[in-house]
Design brief:
Layout (H helix, E strand, L loop, with lengths): L3 H5 L2 H8 L15 H11 L3 H20 L6
């Protein structure tokens, strides 16, 4: 799968995107900071909805590959 957002992210953002659960087993609902969204929108020429949809697809793919779990988001 092509992962343009993951490829453009720094180390901390990549870790946050790939994290499935928080402490005590709560699901981690990742939402990027507005500055990150704006940067991705400018670099890729996409709308905010397109970026968020691609982010969701990439997160599902990463979590499936790392943990073998179908993510609920």
């Amino acid at each position: 799968m092509d992962t343009p957002l993951y490829d453009k992210a720094n180390r901390n953002t990549r870790k946050a995107m790939a994290r499935y659960k928080k402490k005590w087993g709560h699901i981690n609902w990742y939402r990027p900071r507005p500055q990150m969204l704006q940067r991705w929108m400018e670099e890729l020429g996409w709308t905010e909805e397109q970026v968020l949809e691609q982010l969701s697809k990439e997160r599902r793919y990463l979590i499936k590959e790392l943990y073998g779990i179908d993510a609920p988001f």
